[in-house]
């Protein structure tokens, strides 16, 4: 199982959804229509949170789901975390992306 913060009670069903990538999910997806360029952070952030919630990936950035210790979940976590990171990079301006691309996790971005 994934290492989960003490404030969370993710069920096995929730974890299955979190680690599921649908056929339409791809690294080039634009989750929100507006690219964050340093202006309008509040509305951009809210739109991104809504989009991540609908994909079941909000747990990767809100601190609920951390990098798992077990090897079996680690591969799935890395794949989904990398997808979320790609989605975030797609909706920030290039100069902002240059500053966050080397983050170790989507949460760190």
Automatic annotation (TrEMBL):
Start and end residues of each Retrotransposon Copia-like N-terminal domain: 22-68
Residues of the signal peptide: none
Superkingdom to which the source organism belongs: Eukaryota
Pfam families assigned: Retrotran_gag_3
Record protein name field: Retrotransposon Copia-like N-terminal domain-containing protein
């Amino acid at each position: 199982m994934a290492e989960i913060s003490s404030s969370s009670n993710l069920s096995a069903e929730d974890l299955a959804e979190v680690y599921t990538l649908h056929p339409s999910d791809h690294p080039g997806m634009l989750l929100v229509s507006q690219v964050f360029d340093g202006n309008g952070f509040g509305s951009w952030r809210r739109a991104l949170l809504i989009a991540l919630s609908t994909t079941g990936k909000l747990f990767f950035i809100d601190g609920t789901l951390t990098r798992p210790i077990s090897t079996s979940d680690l591969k799935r976590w890395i794949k989904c975390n990398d997808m979320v990171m790609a989605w975030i990079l797609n909706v920030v301006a290039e100069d902002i992306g240059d500053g966050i691309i080397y983050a170790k996790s989507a949460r760190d971005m």
